[in-house]
Specification:
By secondary structure, the chain is of the alpha+beta class. The chain has a single domain, classed as 2-Layer Sandwich (YaeB-like fold), CATH 3.30.2310. It is built from 3 helices and 5 strands; from the N terminus they run βααββββα. The protein has a 5-stranded mixed β-sheet with strand order 1-5-4-3-2.
Length: 89
């Protein structure tokens, strides 16, 4: 089975770097699961389709979230942050 490519937008990369170091490590571990199947939730990789937005997904790591879209065989992260702030567009 082919694996998905992970891309992080520049703005999302800046947000990612501001996260606590332990949260960053947990996100990196979850990215390995996303490479296999970005639509399937499993232990260590809690994902859900966001309602109201076409093809937008949420990756949950504790109190932090990463938003991404799936374009073919590519997963593009658009936003990272704490749950109290990240849902504000």
């Amino acid at each position: 089975m082919a694996s998905y490519e992970i891309i992080v937008q520049r703005s999302a990369e800046r947000e990612f770097r501001k996260l606590p170091r332990d949260v960053q490590q947990r996100f990196v571990a979850a990215l390995d699961f996303l490479r296999e199947d970005p639509r399937r939730s499993r232990p260590g990789c809690d994902v859900r389709l966001l309602s109201g937005l076409t093809n937008s997904w949420r990756l949950r790591v504790g109190d932090y979230r990463g938003f991404y879209v799936i374009e073919g065989m590519t997963v593009v992260f658009t936003k990272f942050g704490h749950r109290r702030n990240v849902y504000r567009f």
